[in-house]
Design brief:
The protein is of the alpha+beta class. The protein has helices spanning about 35-55, 65-70, 100-115, 120-130; strands spanning about 1-10, 15-20, 25-30, 75-80. The chain has 2 domains: about 1-90, Double Stranded RNA Binding Domain (2-Layer Sandwich), CATH 3.30.160; about 90-130. A 4-stranded antiparallel β-sheet has the order 3-2-1-4, with helices on one face.
Length: about 130
């Protein structure tokens, strides 16, 4: 699953700060930008594992433009990290569904254009729909 992270540049005396706007309370840091991003992956993984153990739903991802409009992140650097948190959702199950051919073609085109599989797209679309 992909997560937008906000990186606050470090200085000679401070580390790089990292916040995960879609996961309130999830933050990290690192002495370099690369280290901060890797530590963010670990923090997200642990944060999501605890959320799922506690029965809390992972929030739907917001758009970058929506998050960038939040004043607390003014001047921060933006990145996207991919964290395989799906492992905490249980094993995948194969299902049989019926979808009109035209809609299926549109799903496949959209998924391909966004680097997703058909299943990945359908799962993310369902997550978004259930959060609204």
């Amino acid at each position: 699953m992909k997560f937008i992270i906000a990186l606050e540049p470090g200085t000679d005396s401070t580390a790089w700060g990292v916040a995960v706007p879609d996961l309130p309370g999830c933050f990290s840091a690192g002495d370099t930008m690369d280290e901060a991003m890797e530590n963010a992956r670990l923090a997200i993984d642990q944060h999501v594992e605890i959320m799922i153990e506690d029965g809390v739903t992972i929030p739907a991802a917001r758009s970058l433009s929506e998050i960038q409009s939040e004043p607390e992140y003014a001047g921060w650097i933006w990145a996207v990290v991919d964290v395989p948190v799906e492992k905490y959702l249980g094993p995948a199950e194969k299902i049989n569904i019926t979808i009109p051919r035209l809609i299926l073609a549109r799903i496949d085109a959209y998924a391909k254009a966004h680097g997703l599989s058909r299943s990945g797209f359908l799962v993310e679309a369902a997550r978004v729909a259930m959060h609204q």
